[in-house]
Amino acid sequence: MSAIEKLLLGLRFIGFANGLRTLSFSLQRDWLEWRYGEEPKRADPLWPGDLQECRAIPGGGKFHFQNAELELFFLAPDLVRVTWQPGELPPPYALAGQAWPAVESEFHDTGMVRSVSSEQLEVFVAEDGGLRFLDGSGKVLRTESPPQRQGASWVHRSSLLPQEGIFGLGE
User: Fold this and answer.
1) Burial of residue 161 (number of CB atoms within 10 Å: 0-12, 13-18, 19+)
2) How far apart are CA 78 and CA 74, in angstroms?
3) Among residues 103, 109, 19, which one has the least CA distance to residue 56?
4) In what order do the strands lie in the sheet with 106-109?
């Protein structure tokens, strides 16, 4: 069976109108790919850099790095908001409320160890911007590598223990 016979058989099977729609879509797709082609190259990722200074604020602490600023703010004794700037702030989809009661927090800066804590949670800040979260008993809950800024957004990486997993994301 020749290519033309296969084409005619296919057109008979799907119908002439659907064949034209397929051809039209293919041409439109090819034109759009040609017109808008390659994605713009992303700038090289920018790390926070070295910690320059840190200070206590009501409910948490601020940490100034060479290329970024970190704010840790306790919304509840077991909930801390981590904000890296500059960059666009994400919409607060995960937070139902806007008004949070004040949480008593402590700020620790011994020169080598910097942390912000409440009665149920403590967050250690490394010189390079890495974060370590501990519960009230001192058990490590999460460890984050320093984030990378790409344009207006931040990319975060966290290490998992061998028995931990992330489910529901295609795994």
Assistant:
1) exposed
2) 8
3) 109
4) 106-109, 114-117, 121-125, 131-135, 140-144
Tell me which amino acid residue 146 is: P
Sign of the CA dihedral 11, 13, 16, 22?
negative
Residue whose C-alpha is closest to residue 142's, from 171, 127, 115, 121 = 121
Q: In what side-by-side order are the strands of the sheet with 69-76?
A: 51-57, 60-65, 69-76, 79-85
Contact 121, 136 (CB under 8 A): yes
Q: Rounded to two decimals, what is the model's pTM?
A: 0.70
Average pLDDT over residues 90-98: 73
Check if the beta carbon of residue 67 is closer than 8 Å to that of residue 51: no
The number of beta carbons lying within 10 Å of the beta carbon of residue 72 is 23
Encode pLDDT of 121-141 as tens digits: 999 999 999 999 999 899 999
